[in-house]
UniProtKB/TrEMBL annotation:
Keywords: Amino-acid biosynthesis, Cytoplasm, NADP, Oxidoreductase, Proline biosynthesis
Catalyzed chemical reaction(s): L-proline + NADP(+) = (S)-1-pyrroline-5-carboxylate + NADPH + 2 H(+); L-proline + NAD(+) = (S)-1-pyrroline-5-carboxylate + NADH + 2 H(+)
PANTHER family: PYRROLINE-5-CARBOXYLATE REDUCTASE, PYRROLINE-5-CARBOXYLATE REDUCTASE 3
Pathway annotation from the record: Amino-acid biosynthesis; L-proline biosynthesis; L-proline from L-glutamate 5-semialdehyde: step 1/1
Gene this chain is encoded by: proC
Organism taxonomic ancestry: Bacteria, Pseudomonadati, Bacteroidota, Flavobacteriia, Flavobacteriales
NCBIfam families registered for this protein in UniProt: proC
Segments forming domain Pyrroline-5-carboxylate reductase dimerisation: 159-259
Pfam families in alphabetical order: F420_oxidored (PF03807), P5CR_dimer (PF14748)
Domain Pyrroline-5-carboxylate reductase catalytic N-terminal intervals: 6-98
InterPro entries: 6-PGluconate_DH-like_C_sf, NAD(P)-bd_dom_sf, P5C_Rdtase_cat_N, P5CR_dimer, Pyrroline-COOH_reductase
Name by which UniProt lists this protein: Pyrroline-5-carboxylate reductase
Annotated compartments: Cytoplasm
Role, per record: Catalyzes the reduction of 1-pyrroline-5-carboxylate (PCA) to L-proline.
EC numbers for this chain: 1.5.1.2
């Protein structure tokens, strides 16, 4: 089976992360990755790795087996109209743009084209993204999954959940970082310098996530292991809840979802 070429249109931070991840994880050779961007000077360094870079989409799409649209949502349909003449029937299209439905893309390039949507998050930069994926075809599913596993973990969902995936998985990075910031500020208030507090908090957040990932338990089961009767943990948790900790987070998630 021949190695499939991957073309990334709009190679910004995410596109570059995917390209570098594919090579790093040895899922593609550099010469099988093609990238386009108007500001081509920002991806010139990828040529030194052996990748093909261009300012023109028409130069990379005809030889691509997979085309990833890593552009702003308002540009997706415009670019599909541009590249439609260069697509093969088997060319797999993947959009990482928020809010552009598969049906809208089908109106431009046809119902038979394998089309997928993917929602990674900014942790793609360190190959730890959680990418939610949906598609209109089983054809190409394994290929798309393989690509996004080069930047982290993947999960397939229905398209009706893609907006929710954006809020929980992509916006969620900001929510967690704001929680971490507050933890660090609290650490400083009780005596740590900011650098030490940051190291303790970030590792603790990582520890908590690993407990859930490796043990597969509900968060409350792990919380119960820490909250001893009349202890300092339970009084802290109860005070946070009195101040609206959980409810404010849930309301924030719902507000973001309504905005989409």
């Amino acid at each position: 089976m021949k190695t499939k070429n991957v073309a990334i249109i709009g190679a910004g931070n995410l596109g570059i992360s995917i390209a570098e991840g594919l090579v790093k994880k040895q899922k593609r050779k550099a010469e099988n990755i093609l990238l386009s961007r108007n500001q081509i000077q920002k991806i010139e360094h990828l040529k030194k790795m052996g990748m093909i870079v261009s300012q023109k989409n028409a130069e990379i799409v005809p030889v691509a087996d997979v085309v990833i649209l890593a552009v702003k949502p308002y540009k997706v349909l415009e670019i599909l109209k541009e590249i439609q003449p260069y697509l093969q029937p088997s060319t797999i299209i993947v959009s990482v743009a928020t809010g552009i439905e598969i049906s809208s893309m089908q109106k431009i390039i046809g119902n038979q084209q394998p089309i997928f949507r993917a929602m990674p998050n900014t942790a793609a930069a360190v190959s730890e993204s959680m990418s939610c994926i949906c598609g209109n075809s089983e054809e190409g599913r394994k290929e798309v999954e393989d690509i996004f596993q080069s930047i982290g973990e993947t999960i397939f969902i229905t398209e009706k959940l893609m907006n929710a995936a954006t809020v929980v998985g992509a916006c969620g990075i900001a929510y967690v970082l704001r929680f971490i910031r507050a933890m660090i500020q609290g650490g400083v208030e009780i005596g740590f310098d900011s650098q030490t507090a940051s190291k303790i908090v970030t590792q603790t957040v990582k520890d908590a996530a690993e407990l859930l990932i490796q043990n597969g338990l509900h968060p409350e089961q792990e919380i119960d292991k820490v909250t001893t009767p009349k202890g300092c943990t339970i009084v802290g948790l109860n005070e946070m809840e009195h101040q609206g900790f959980s409810s404010s987070l849930i309301k924030g998630i719902k507000t973001s979802f309504e905005k989409i």
